[in-house]
User: Fold this.
Amino acid sequence: MQDNAQLAPVAHDGEAPRLNRRQAAKVRTRQKVLDAARGLFAERGYEAATIRDIAKAAGMSTGAVFANFQDKAELFEAVLSQDLGAMLTDFQNGAGKDGGVRERLASALTAGYHRALDILPLMQAVIARSWFQPEADDQRQRQLIRPLVEVLVAVLQDGIRAGEVKQDVDTPLLGRMIWDVYISNYRYAAYDGWGIEEMTPHVRKQIDLILSSQLARQ
Assistant:
Protein backbone atom coordinates (compact mmCIF):
# COMPACT_ATOMS: atom_id res chain seq x y z
CA MET A 1 0.00 0.00 0.00
CA GLN A 2 1.31 3.45 -0.87
CA ASP A 3 2.12 5.61 2.14
CA ASN A 4 1.51 9.32 2.50
CA ALA A 5 5.15 10.27 1.90
CA GLN A 6 5.62 12.86 -0.78
CA LEU A 7 6.84 11.29 -3.99
CA ALA A 8 9.82 12.77 -5.78
CA PRO A 9 9.15 14.32 -9.19
CA VAL A 10 9.81 11.95 -12.08
CA ALA A 11 11.26 12.90 -15.45
CA HIS A 12 9.97 11.28 -18.63
CA ASP A 13 11.70 11.05 -21.99
CA GLY A 14 14.63 13.26 -21.00
CA GLU A 15 12.45 16.04 -19.60
CA ALA A 16 13.46 17.89 -16.44
CA PRO A 17 11.63 16.66 -13.33
CA ARG A 18 8.46 18.58 -12.55
CA LEU A 19 8.45 20.41 -9.25
CA ASN A 20 5.52 20.41 -6.91
CA ARG A 21 4.32 23.69 -5.45
CA ARG A 22 6.47 23.49 -2.35
CA GLN A 23 9.61 22.73 -4.34
CA ALA A 24 8.86 25.47 -6.86
CA ALA A 25 8.35 27.97 -4.03
CA LYS A 26 11.68 26.94 -2.50
CA VAL A 27 13.43 27.47 -5.85
CA ARG A 28 11.85 30.92 -6.21
CA THR A 29 12.83 31.88 -2.68
CA ARG A 30 16.39 30.75 -3.21
CA GLN A 31 16.67 32.71 -6.44
CA LYS A 32 15.17 35.79 -4.79
CA VAL A 33 17.89 35.62 -2.12
CA LEU A 34 20.57 35.15 -4.80
CA ASP A 35 19.32 38.16 -6.77
CA ALA A 36 19.28 40.35 -3.68
CA ALA A 37 22.73 39.16 -2.63
CA ARG A 38 24.15 39.74 -6.11
CA GLY A 39 22.87 43.30 -6.09
CA LEU A 40 24.39 44.08 -2.69
CA PHE A 41 27.68 42.29 -3.37
CA ALA A 42 27.94 44.21 -6.65
CA GLU A 43 27.11 47.49 -4.93
CA ARG A 44 29.08 47.14 -1.68
CA GLY A 45 31.47 44.22 -2.04
CA TYR A 46 31.58 41.12 0.14
CA GLU A 47 32.40 42.48 3.58
CA ALA A 48 29.92 45.37 3.61
CA ALA A 49 26.95 43.28 2.44
CA THR A 50 25.38 41.71 5.54
CA ILE A 51 22.92 38.84 5.73
CA ARG A 52 20.44 41.20 7.39
CA ASP A 53 20.69 43.65 4.49
CA ILE A 54 20.40 40.84 1.95
CA ALA A 55 17.29 39.51 3.69
CA LYS A 56 15.75 43.00 3.74
CA ALA A 57 16.49 43.50 0.04
CA ALA A 58 14.87 40.13 -0.70
CA GLY A 59 11.84 41.03 1.38
CA MET A 60 12.22 38.17 3.83
CA SER A 61 13.62 37.31 7.24
CA THR A 62 17.21 36.39 8.00
CA GLY A 63 15.85 32.98 9.02
CA ALA A 64 14.56 32.46 5.49
CA VAL A 65 18.03 33.24 4.14
CA PHE A 66 19.67 30.78 6.51
CA ALA A 67 17.10 28.17 5.55
CA ASN A 68 18.61 28.24 2.06
CA PHE A 69 22.27 29.02 2.74
CA GLN A 70 24.50 28.03 5.63
CA ASP A 71 26.28 31.38 5.82
CA LYS A 72 27.30 34.41 3.77
CA ALA A 73 30.30 32.57 2.31
CA GLU A 74 28.05 29.87 0.85
CA LEU A 75 25.68 32.51 -0.49
CA PHE A 76 28.56 34.38 -2.11
CA GLU A 77 29.81 31.17 -3.69
CA ALA A 78 26.36 30.48 -5.14
CA VAL A 79 26.22 33.99 -6.64
CA LEU A 80 29.73 33.52 -8.01
CA SER A 81 28.79 30.18 -9.54
CA GLN A 82 25.89 31.73 -11.45
CA ASP A 83 27.89 34.72 -12.63
CA LEU A 84 30.90 32.68 -13.72
CA GLY A 85 28.52 30.42 -15.61
CA ALA A 86 27.25 33.44 -17.52
CA MET A 87 30.81 34.65 -18.06
CA LEU A 88 31.74 31.22 -19.42
CA THR A 89 29.12 31.66 -22.12
CA ASP A 90 30.59 35.08 -22.92
CA PHE A 91 34.08 33.59 -23.14
CA GLN A 92 32.88 30.80 -25.41
CA ASN A 93 31.06 33.21 -27.71
CA GLY A 94 34.09 35.49 -27.91
CA ALA A 95 36.51 32.63 -28.50
CA GLY A 96 34.23 31.24 -31.20
CA LYS A 97 34.59 34.27 -33.45
CA ASP A 98 36.54 34.08 -36.68
CA GLY A 99 40.22 34.94 -36.61
CA GLY A 100 43.57 33.77 -35.37
CA VAL A 101 44.65 32.94 -31.84
CA ARG A 102 45.31 36.55 -30.85
CA GLU A 103 41.93 37.77 -32.06
CA ARG A 104 39.98 34.94 -30.48
CA LEU A 105 41.71 35.29 -27.10
CA ALA A 106 41.18 39.05 -27.10
CA SER A 107 37.52 38.61 -28.04
CA ALA A 108 36.99 36.14 -25.20
CA LEU A 109 38.58 38.37 -22.56
CA THR A 110 36.85 41.50 -23.82
CA ALA A 111 33.50 39.72 -23.66
CA GLY A 112 34.25 38.91 -20.04
CA TYR A 113 35.05 42.54 -19.28
CA HIS A 114 31.79 43.69 -20.86
CA ARG A 115 29.85 41.65 -18.31
CA ALA A 116 32.05 42.04 -15.24
CA LEU A 117 32.70 45.79 -15.32
CA ASP A 118 29.02 46.33 -14.47
CA ILE A 119 29.54 44.39 -11.24
CA LEU A 120 33.05 45.56 -10.41
CA PRO A 121 32.73 45.43 -6.58
CA LEU A 122 31.67 41.79 -6.92
CA MET A 123 34.74 41.03 -9.01
CA GLN A 124 36.92 42.84 -6.48
CA ALA A 125 35.40 40.70 -3.75
CA VAL A 126 36.20 37.54 -5.73
CA ILE A 127 39.83 38.60 -6.12
CA ALA A 128 40.20 39.71 -2.49
CA ARG A 129 38.67 36.53 -1.10
CA SER A 130 40.96 34.40 -3.24
CA TRP A 131 43.79 35.53 -0.95
CA PHE A 132 41.98 35.18 2.36
CA GLN A 133 39.68 32.15 2.47
CA PRO A 134 39.83 28.58 3.79
CA GLU A 135 41.57 26.07 1.55
CA ALA A 136 38.34 24.18 0.85
CA ASP A 137 36.66 27.40 -0.34
CA ASP A 138 39.68 28.19 -2.50
CA GLN A 139 39.55 24.77 -4.13
CA ARG A 140 35.85 25.16 -4.93
CA GLN A 141 36.49 28.60 -6.42
CA ARG A 142 39.26 27.17 -8.59
CA GLN A 143 36.83 24.55 -9.86
CA LEU A 144 34.41 27.32 -10.83
CA ILE A 145 37.12 29.19 -12.71
CA ARG A 146 38.62 26.14 -14.44
CA PRO A 147 36.11 26.05 -17.36
CA LEU A 148 36.97 29.65 -18.27
CA VAL A 149 40.68 28.86 -18.36
CA GLU A 150 39.89 25.78 -20.44
CA VAL A 151 38.29 28.02 -23.08
CA LEU A 152 41.60 29.89 -23.41
CA VAL A 153 43.55 26.62 -23.51
CA ALA A 154 41.27 25.31 -26.26
CA VAL A 155 41.99 28.39 -28.39
CA LEU A 156 45.72 27.81 -27.97
CA GLN A 157 45.35 24.14 -28.87
CA ASP A 158 43.41 25.14 -31.98
CA GLY A 159 46.34 27.39 -32.82
CA ILE A 160 48.75 24.47 -32.54
CA ARG A 161 46.62 22.35 -34.86
CA ALA A 162 46.44 25.23 -37.35
CA GLY A 163 50.22 25.67 -37.27
CA GLU A 164 49.92 29.14 -35.76
CA VAL A 165 51.30 28.25 -32.33
CA LYS A 166 54.46 26.24 -31.66
CA GLN A 167 53.95 22.53 -31.11
CA ASP A 168 55.82 22.42 -27.78
CA VAL A 169 53.84 25.18 -26.06
CA ASP A 170 52.62 24.31 -22.55
CA THR A 171 49.01 25.31 -23.25
CA PRO A 172 47.65 24.79 -19.69
CA LEU A 173 50.39 27.03 -18.30
CA LEU A 174 49.94 29.65 -21.01
CA GLY A 175 46.17 29.62 -20.59
CA ARG A 176 46.53 30.19 -16.87
CA MET A 177 48.98 33.05 -17.48
CA ILE A 178 46.46 34.73 -19.78
CA TRP A 179 43.73 34.27 -17.16
CA ASP A 180 45.97 35.82 -14.49
CA VAL A 181 46.57 38.82 -16.74
CA TYR A 182 42.83 39.11 -17.34
CA ILE A 183 42.13 39.18 -13.60
CA SER A 184 44.96 41.60 -12.80
CA ASN A 185 43.50 44.25 -15.10
CA TYR A 186 40.49 44.72 -12.84
CA ARG A 187 42.60 46.88 -10.55
CA TYR A 188 42.84 49.46 -13.36
CA ALA A 189 39.06 49.54 -13.51
CA ALA A 190 38.81 49.80 -9.72
CA TYR A 191 41.53 52.38 -9.05
CA ASP A 192 42.09 54.22 -12.33
CA GLY A 193 38.54 54.34 -13.57
CA TRP A 194 39.19 52.33 -16.72
CA GLY A 195 36.21 51.27 -18.80
CA ILE A 196 35.91 48.89 -21.71
CA GLU A 197 37.50 51.49 -24.02
CA GLU A 198 40.74 51.32 -22.05
CA MET A 199 40.63 47.66 -21.08
CA THR A 200 40.24 46.32 -24.63
CA PRO A 201 43.41 47.74 -26.24
CA HIS A 202 45.38 47.09 -23.06
CA VAL A 203 44.56 43.39 -22.91
CA ARG A 204 45.24 43.04 -26.63
CA LYS A 205 48.75 44.40 -26.12
CA GLN A 206 49.26 42.00 -23.22
CA ILE A 207 48.17 39.05 -25.34
CA ASP A 208 50.55 40.12 -28.10
CA LEU A 209 53.44 40.20 -25.62
CA ILE A 210 52.55 36.85 -24.07
CA LEU A 211 52.29 35.17 -27.46
CA SER A 212 55.24 36.93 -29.09
CA SER A 213 57.61 34.01 -28.45
CA GLN A 214 55.00 31.27 -28.79
CA LEU A 215 53.84 31.74 -32.36
CA ALA A 216 55.09 29.37 -35.04
CA ARG A 217 55.03 32.07 -37.66
CA GLN A 218 55.17 35.82 -37.22
In short: Residues 135-161 form the longest helix (27 residues). The radius of gyration is 21 Å. Residues 70 and 79 are 14 Å apart (CA to CA).
